[in-house]
Amino acid sequence: MTVGAKERRLGWPGGLSARLLGLTALFVMLAELMILAPSMAGFHENWLIVRTRLAEEASVAVELAPAGAIPQRKTAQLLEGAGVVTVAVSSRGLRRLLLAGPRMETAPTLIDLRHRNSFERLTAPFETLAPGPPRMLRIVAKPQFRDGDFVEIVAPEGPLREDLTAYLGSILASSVFISLVAGVLVYVSINAVLVRPMRRITGAMERFRARPDDPQARLRPSGRDDEIGRAEVELNQMQEDLLAALHSRARLAALGEAVAKINHDLRNMLTSAQFASERLAASGDPNVTQALPRLERALDRAVRLAEGVLAYGKSEEAAPTLQTLDLATVLKDAGEDAGLTGEGDTDPAGLPAGDAGGVALEIAETARRAVRADPDQLHRIFVNLFRNARQAIESRPAPPSAGLVRVTAETQEGAVRIRIADNGPGLPERARARLFQAFSGSQRPDGAGLGLAIARELAVGHGGDLVLVTSGDGGATFELSLPLSAPDAGSGAS
């Protein structure tokens, strides 16, 4: 199904707008039906009262006639004008028949307007509209134009049924009209305020799914400050994050392919370097003998890394092989490989000064302890962190003091928490959101943005984590947590 077809499906007649129109009309009709019974009851009672008042006026004319008697023809005119058959009044317990019509074969239905409850008032109109021949109604009410106990009339039900049917039809017609008008108004307003923006959002989602690299597929927020505006902002941010993730995956795939091609040659080169180091060991030069262990360790790590490089090209790391390590020794070796100067053995109260243009490593007394970790992976974590710190400090245009990287450690909540703090310029705000994403966190033009991503992946593989604790003008502080107990088998990062 095309995007255009999907957009048409959201509109008339099966979309949200049409449903709102139908629901609005339905609810208005239900509201009208709820007031239908009281309205009809009021009309029904008012019709009976009007007939009673007309009959009462006719009875007054009879009493004002000479000798209280009027011709038969005049009586028929009065009864016809009032729309009744018989009129009687009761005063002081005496009932008098003032206007009498023809004798009825069946007794009329009594409706006493003086004593009626709500149920009787509401059901009376529907009894009148019920199928069947019209009845004769005997209506009793309090007098208004004369003294007495009550006025009693007998009237046919046919005219009342006709008037009530016409009134019901007018109510239903007005209800339909009001429902349609209200529905159209709601349709227009909701369509403008809600449905069109939602259609715009869904259309942007469909276009982005089909062509994520197309700039026109991105949703530009309208600036609204309601829920729709928030949805637009979040969708725009999600599209941006997804696009960055897609680009990262594409670069990772390209990197994996390139690494796979050079892996074989790289291992051969490293093997040759190992042979050369063995020949250097036999030279007898004391300077070479002093530097050779460091060279051999570096070559051993490089060989092991090259052997597992294809696995990393698949974004996977081998599960760590845990050993009990001296943390201070690991830190010193990583500091040397990362280009840090000094051994970090000074008193924590006095900060060691690095060499000219160099960055010193300080290992606090709290960091001189044993930890459980994979030696190669822990070395890689610290090398990445130390190298990033050194490069950040050296990037300052005018360093206010000697560069320093200080390492502390403490045991907390079943884990060893190792903090690496530097006195560099800190990280900019825009870099913190994607600090640990591959190809996204680097702040150097020649950086790949892989160092922190690799370090965190290795930390998670140990069952711990690597987080940025603080960052500002005084430098940045990272915290590496390693569990005191071994992680589950096979919990390598993925």
From the structure above, extract its key features.
494 residues, alpha+beta, Helix Hairpins, Heat Shock Protein 90, five-stranded mixed sheet, 12 strands, 53% helix, 16% strand, rod-shaped, disordered N terminus
Q: How many strands, what sense, and barrel or not for the largest sheet?
A: 5 strands, mixed
**Residue share in β-strands:** 15-25%
**Rounded average pLDDT:** 76
Number of helices: 12
Description:
The chain has 494 residues and is α+β, with helices and mostly antiparallel strands. It contains 12 helices and 12 strands. A hairpin with a 2-residue loop joins strand 1 and strand 2.
Question: In a few lines, what is going on in this structure?
Answer:
The chain is α+β, with helices and mostly antiparallel strands and 494 residues long.
Topology:
Elements: H1 3-10, H2 16-64, H3 72-82, E1 86-91, E2 94-99, E3 109-112, H4 118-129, E4 136-141, E5 150-156, H5 158-210, H6 227-281, H7 286-307, H8 309-313, E6 323-326, H9 327-337, E7 359-363, E8 370-373, H10 375-394, E9 403-412, E10 415-422, H11 429-432, H12 451-461, E11 465-472, E12 475-483
Parallel strand pairs: 3-4, 7-9
Antiparallel strand pairs: 1-2, 1-5, 4-5, 6-8, 9-10, 10-12, 11-12
